[in-house]
Amino acid sequence: MRRPSRESEPSFGVELLAHADALYNFARYLTRDAALAEDLVQDAFARALDAQAQFSLGTNLKAWLFRILRNAFLDRRRRERKSPVEFRDADDDGGDGKDVWLRGDIELDRLRSLVVSDIESALGRLSDDGRAVVLLDLEGFTETEIAKVMDTAVGTVKSRLARARAVLREALQEYAK
Fold first, then answer.
1. pLDDT tens profile 99-113
2. Residue 25 burial by CB count (10 A; 0-12/13-18/19+): exposed, middle or buried?
3. Residue 57: inside a domain, yes or no?
């Protein structure tokens, strides 16, 4: 059955693009690599467009996209383990070390970069699943939505989130003072 086209409704592609920044941020923390994150988001969009017919209208498009992105990430990880080609270190972002969003006072920029570094280091201590639940939680997903994205039970999400928060609390305790 064809969906009637309405001029006032945005196209599916436009609706997908509305979530590009959130998907990129999630991919960036999963991969810890800017270029790989961009590739992963592109892969997720391609998969979403291919699977457009499987999307149920009225459901959470953002959660559906995050699940596609996470599955694409897991697929890449599986391929990397099987590939005899050595990939570059995930901590090497290939950039020049200058973050465009850190601007202003030099001392403030130094403090920001220390905090960002500490947070990224703390997130790096988490397992892939632990990092994913924390990032999805920060994106505003409910535990039920996170469970759907991660294809696991809500109880598993709750325990992973609790363990991940404990690790982050321990790693970032100096900022609680």
1. 444 445 566 666 667
2. middle
3. yes
